[in-house]
Amino acid sequence: MSMTEPRLQFAVLTLFPEAFDAVTRWGVTGRAFESGLCALHVQNPRDEATDRHGSVDDRPYGGGPGMVMQAPILSAALGKARLAIGADAKVLALSPQGVKLDAKLAQSLALESKLILVAGRYEGFDQRFIEREVDLEVSVGDFVVSGGELPAMLLMDAVARWVPGVLGHECSAAEDSFSDGLLDCPQYTRPEVFQGDRVPDVLLSGDHGAIADWRRAHSIKATLDRRPDLLGWEEVAEPDRKLLEKWDLLPGDRGRHS
Ligand code: SAM
Question: Is residue 96 in contact with ligand 1, taking CB distance under 6 Å?
Answer without folding.
Answer: yes
